[in-house]
Amino acid sequence: xxxxxNAKKNNKENKSKDNKINxxxxxxRNTRVWIDPETDIFYLSLxxxxxxxxxxxxxxxxxxxxxxxKIIGLEIRNLSKIDFNKIIEYTKKVLTD
Length: 97
Hints:
Blueprint: H1 2-29, E1 32-36, E2 41-45, E3 53-56, E4 61-65, E5 71-76, H2 84-96
Antiparallel strand pairs: 1-2, 2-5, 3-4, 4-5
């Protein structure tokens, strides 16, 4: 009985990881990137269309949403001051959890 429970749990965890990876692939298919060295801004567009709402994560990071509350863009201000090692570590954690 314990083996069946563990197998179901592992299957559910694997599906969750697969869903995260599939979603990441979906986002990256249509991704466009702009970097403006004069203003020190990086912009990542994940989907065409207007921004309906946005959320400021901190003084440097803004996430934009469409009318279905899906992420369509990411703006990073003061790009030259961002610690990308922290972003990479956080991304790895999100994808493996």
